[in-house]
Design brief:
The structure holds two protein chains of two kinds. By secondary structure, chain A is an all-alpha fold. Chain A is about 60% helix and about 0% strand. Classes of the chains: A mainly alpha, B alpha+beta.
Chain lengths: ~300, ~180
């Protein structure tokens, strides 16, 4: 058990910096958001349907290759998948509500990593959930159950740790999100170079993703893009610039609203133009909200709610 | 200032937490940087190479439509996501990989696939989509399970139609190539 700590002058200065003014409550809320996102996702997913697919089309990817075929034969049955779903639901309910947090955040991480590996072994890598998986990894090894958790409510005593014990994990998760966008833009520029700004890049890609009925949505807006193709290099350049500038959202709170708003527009655009959507990643934008300030507002309703600033 | 604060701990528990955060940061970011440098996804290590190559109008593209033939004689489009929603965002690549017999080209092939390869005398002798009938059968049964026994909307067959957009122009998107059909 940690002992109460008085704020040192250095720590007070650190608090005044307010790059990430997050306390135990904010980290607890982010834990609930990240784990809750997977909880909802597992709740609405039919695992038994997945269990009816033939194991012979599976192509284990990465670490999933370490498991023997006999294991997949047993797992990929309706009953095997029902057991997996039950285990995931129990663990994710515990970690979302913050009960036995030190253990449940780790079991949820393991189960989610395994399940995400399994679905990737059917299809392609798909990056939507990966940021959330990394956030679960951060949360599993940080004191995210010290507040906004059943553990805290049952314990009824406050744990005192230094401010950075809570703010650094949130900073780390924000940096991970910044890395996602920043590295994505750099890879595009490395692989495709200026060709990425060709007039046909976006329409050709968007139309391809709108032709079949195997995507999750069937928007046909992509077929309108050839009519405006001369403007599209500017739109693509704008997206690349936004991705490259995303790290500013972490370090310069004044830019945060604009960058996150542009992100929402971007992800909704990929949905209607390309039938590709990243809901898990979008939900994690909520980690940029200053949850401590939100909590303070509920105590003193007259104060405005800022983002992390 | 941050460094001086983080290295000037008043309690051993703070030192332990600091060490844990250093290890956590390295354990997450070092693999990510490796994946970025080599542009390689090695689950669970990710390189964010989504759409890195962009679209190319000169390149043709194949795509599939999943359809069902109902007991009443109608042909209907079937959104695969409604059958196996666990494969959110992945159904189309799963089907493409199955058409290309990718599960037969692994370093460790499933024993049943190994038998099929032996029977055919090699992977190259397998027809494209050798496991598609199994996939279609699973989808067809899932579809019918959700309907009453007497429903005219139940499927008597399910099929996957493969089309090609040759590219070069923004037209002629649907040149029919091939179909796989499974009676239910």
């Amino acid at each position: 058990m940690c002992l109460p700590l008085a704020e040192s002058p250095a720590e007070k200065k650190l608090l005044n910096l307010r790059v990430v003014p997050a306390g135990a409550l904010a980290l607890g809320v982010v834990r609930s958001i990240a784990h809750g996102t997977f909880l909802v996702s597992v709740l609405v997913t039919s695992f038994s349907a997945l269990g009816t697919l033939p194991v012979t089309i599976l192509r284990p990817t990465g670490a999933m290759k370490l498991l023997p075929w006999g294991f997949y034969d047993q797992l990929l049955t309706p009953s095997g998948m029902a057991i997996l779903k039950t285990a995931m639901l129990v663990s994710l309910i515990l970690s979302t509500t913050g009960l036995f947090t030190a253990i449940s955040t780790k079991t949820s991480l393991l189960l989610v990593v395994f399940y995400q590996g399994l679905v990737r072994s059917f299809g392609h890598f798909n990056h939507d959930e990966m940021l959330a998986v990394y956030c679960l990894a951060v949360l599993a090894f940080t004191p995210c159950g010290d507040s906004f958790s059943m553990d805290h409510w049952l314990r009824r005593t406050k744990r005192h740790r230094p401010h950075w014990a809570y703010s650094y994990p949130i900073l780390l998760m924000q940096l991970l999100m910044a890395w996602v966008y920043f590295s994505s833009a750099l890879i595009k520029l490395r692989v495709a170079g200026v060709k990425y700004l060709s007039v046909d890049n976006l329409p050709a890609l968007a139309i391809f993703h709108s032709l079949d009925n195997l995507h999750d949505t069937h928007f046909k807006l992509a077929f309108w893009l050839p009519q405006v193709r001369s403007y599209l290099p500017f739109a693509v350049a704008l997206v690349l610039a936004w991705e490259l500038l995303f790290p500013l959202a972490v370090f310069f709170p004044r830019t945060r609203w604009w960058i996150l708003a542009a992100g929402i527009v971007f992800h909704l655009s990929t949905l209607v133009l390309m039938n590709i959507f990243f809901p898990h990643q979008l939900v994690l934008y909520l980690m940029f909200v200053n949850w401590d300030a939100v909590a303070r507002r509920f105590r003193t309703p007259s104060r405005p709610v800022p983002l992390n600033d | 200032m941050l460094t001086s604060k983080l290295t000037n701990f008043s309690l051993p528990s703070e030192r332990g937490l600091f060490a844990r955060y250093v290890i956590l940061t390295a354990a997450i970011f070092l693999p990510l940087i490796w994946a970025f440098v080599y542009v390689r996804n090695l689950y669970p290590i990710a390189a964010w190479n989504v759409m890195m190559a962009g679209g190319d109008l000169e390149r043709g593209r194949d795509y599939c439509i999943l359809r069902g033939e109902t007991v009443s004689g109608e042909t209907i489009d079937i959104p695969a996501i409604e059958l196996t929603n666990a494969l959110f965002s992945r159904t189309w690549t799963m089907v493409n990989a199955t058409i290309r017999n990718q599960s037969f080209k692994l370093s460790s092939v499933h024993p049943e696939n190994l038998e099929l390869i032996r029977g055919a005398g090699g992977v190259e002798n397998l027809p494209s989509g050798a496991r598609l009938p199994d996939l279609l059968d699973a989808w067809g049964r899932l579809y019918n399970q959700r309907l009453p026994e007497a429903s005219p909307q139940r499927l008597r067959a399910i099929r996957l139609d493969l089309y090609r957009w040759e590219g070069r122009t923004y037209s002629d998107y649907a040149r029919f190539i091939q179909s796989w059909r499974k009676d239910l």
